[in-house]
Design goal:
This protein has 195 residues and is mainly α. The chain has one domain. 77% of the residues lie in helices and 0% in strands. The chain contains eight helices and no strands. The longest helix has 28 residues. The protein is globular. The relative contact order is 0.12.
């Protein structure tokens, strides 16, 4: 929106509608696998289907496919709550964040930060440029592959008995460092005339 304007949001919106459910399902699948300590498909699938984020996505998809409209009395508070979700989650994460805890899992944290902000965007954006993506499509892919870890990952890790400290550190450090890396990606792509 800031780069291309509000009238160019159709492609990013469609991509978000596809990518977010995929990210949620895959992350729940991975967390369920590691929570159990071994790969047991029926138990993992049951855990995925019982996850509140997945249940919400399924309900939303059913409403969308069946064309069931939500009354404005419900829709307005839900949209206001949705707008406050990420800032509130960051505040909660900040309140429980332990600044010195990164020493306990430094290799994993460095791997996550480098992978999320440098390695994966380099590979995916190079591939996208090679295939021919330009303009708003390329910026949409940048928003998918070069942004920080989702704050919901911390809450999911906490709920599912995973390493919440590592997940919280990944969110905090990728969020702080993404201020520089996203600027760098935009600068490089703009300098190359790709959007």
């Amino acid at each position: 929106s800031n780069i291309f304007g509000d009238d160019q949001l159709a492609i990013p919106t469609m991509m978000i509608a596809i990518i977010v459910p995929i990210y949620n399902i895959v992350s729940v699948f991975i967390l369920e696998t590691f929570r159990g300590g071994h790969f047991y498909l029926p138990g993992i699938l049951l855990g995925v289907l019982k996850n509140p984020m997945i249940l919400g996505a399924i309900c939303g998809t059913i409403f969308l496919v069946l064309g069931i409209p939500l009354p404005k009395v419900i829709l307005k508070p839900v949209s206001q709550l949705a707008a406050a979700t990420t800032p509130m989650a960051l505040i909660i994460l900040g309140a429980s964040f332990k600044a010195g805890s990164y020493h306990e899992h430094l290799p994993q944290l460095v791997g996550c930060v480098l992978g999320r902000l440098i390695i994966v965007p380099t590979i995916m954006l190079s591939l996208a440029i090679f295939v021919g993506f330009r303009g708003v499509e390329l910026v949409t892919l940048m928003a998918i592959f070069a942004t920080p870890c989702a704050v919901a990952g911390y809450a999911m890790a906490q709920q599912m008995g995973s390493d919440a400290d590592l997940a919280g550190n990944c969110v905090v450090y990728t969020t702080v460092l993404s201020c520089f890396t996203i600027f760098g990606w935009v600068f490089v792509l703009k300098t190359l005339g790709l959007f």
